[in-house]
């Protein structure tokens, strides 16, 4: 099997253990991700995307807000 056909994520670095990446490491690309997996029982999570930080927050009404 060549690297081009392998959809597995790269191995986790020690600093990534216990992070959202570890929690989602076995989810194939394109598969829907449940918000509870990202929030891990909390109400908000910080997401780094292209060097910028965003906050994903769950409201009391069950909606999600993404802010920069």
Q: Secondary-structure map with pairings?
A:
Layout (H helix, E strand, L loop, with lengths): L19 H5 L10 H5 L4 E6 L2 E7 L5 E4 L1
Antiparallel strand pairs: 1-2, 2-3
Describe this structure in words.
The protein has helices at residues 20-24, 35-39; strands spanning 44-49, 52-58, 64-67. Strand 1 (44-49) and strand 2 form a beta hairpin. It is an alpha+beta fold. The chain has one domain (3-67): Complement Module, domain 1, CATH 2.10.70. The protein has a 3-stranded antiparallel beta sheet with strand order 1-2-3, with no helix packed on it. The chain is globular, with a radius of gyration of 14 Å.
Quickly list its features:
alpha+beta; Complement Module, domain 1; three-stranded antiparallel beta sheet; 68 residues; globular
Which residues form runs of ≥5 with pLDDT under 50?
none
Alpha-carbon distance between the termini? 40 Å
- What is the CATH domain class? Mainly Beta
The protein's oligomeric status is: single chain
User: Which percent band covers the strand fraction?
Assistant: 25-35%
Domain module count: 1
Strand adjacency order, main sheet? 1-2-3
CATH topology descriptor: Complement Module, domain 1
Largest sheet: 3 strands, antiparallel
| CATH architecture name | Ribbon
Give the strand tally: 3
Helix content: 10-25%
Averaged pLDDT: 78
Short description:
The chain has 68 residues and is α+β, with helices and mostly antiparallel strands. It contains 2 helices and 3 strands. β1 and β2 form a beta hairpin.
